[in-house]
Amino acid sequence: MIGVMVVDVVIPVLNEERALPQVLAELPSSLIRQVVVVDNGSTDRSAEVARDGGARVVSEPRRGYGRAVWTGICQLMSDPPEVVVFIDGDAADDPTELSRLVEPIATDDADLVIGSRTTGRIAEGAMPLAQRLGNLLVPLIIRALYHTETTDLGPFRAIRWSSLMELKLIDRGFGITVEMQIKAAKRGLRVVEVPVSYRARIGESKISGNFKVALTAALKILWTVAKYAG
Ligand SMILES: Nc1nc2c(ncn2[C@@H]2O[C@H](COP(=O)(O)OP(=O)(O)OP(=O)(O)O)[C@@H](O)[C@H]2O)c(=O)[nH]1
Ligand SMILES: [Mg+2]
Q1: Ligand 1: which residue has its CA nearest to atom 5?
Q2: CA–CA gap between residue 142 and residue 173 (Å, rounded)
Q3: Mutate to test the pocket of ligand 1, among 62, 117, 206, 208 (most ligand atoms within 8 A of CB)
Q4: Dihedral of CA 115/116/117/120: which sign?
Q5: Which has more confidence, 42 or 222?
Q6: Given Cys at both, which of 68, 71, 204, 208 links 131, Cβ 3.0 to 4.6 Å?
Q7: Which ligand 1 atom sits closest to the C-alpha of 208?
Q8: pTM as predicted
């Protein structure tokens, strides 16, 4: 069933030269048409490593997780897939679990599938306490506001192309994941969660290991929730 759908993968990347070879090697290539790595101004060899790993590399020098994600989406517009999968480039998500995300779309049971680390398995040390707490709080607010069954804002997710276009995402930072979930809920799209594993990232932590950056990302996410509430 999955094999009949055209699936493209977008990986936003900022300095992930150490992790990318593993991410690209572990992606199930038989299920994927192409992998787009968006190089978000890396100062290391991420772009070369991505090319060596068989990915199409797009450069987006303007920083921001959402900016990189959006540039990846724009790259697909001239010949869109049926499903886009987003996965981080730091090897924290397990690429071999991609089929879990695509399956509910392939069987026409979902439009957006979120990989939930909360219902899956989080490796020891992979998610610091502050991030765990934030990741409990925000889904709790979303559940209360939109009567969904949200348990995570995980970056490893799959969405039907037509649904993605409907959502007209505007956030270009770390709010883009929560924006996607809230807008999908408000529009009555079928949102499904599947359990995924979360491993310790390869390479230095840029967000969760840095209190100030993590706080800024958390506030941005809460602000995004407030913005779309109602
Ligand atoms: N931090 C950050 N990551 C970006 C940016 N653009 C693309 N990325 C990529 O987005 C993905 C998620 O960023 P991460 O730094 O892993 O964020 P996180 O998982 O919350 O935190 P850590 O893994 O602890 O750094 C990774 O693949 C990054 O390389 C950006 O502007 N900032
Ligand atoms: Mg990470």
Answers
A1: 65
A2: 19
A3: 206
A4: negative
A5: 42
A6: 208
A7: 24
A8: 0.96
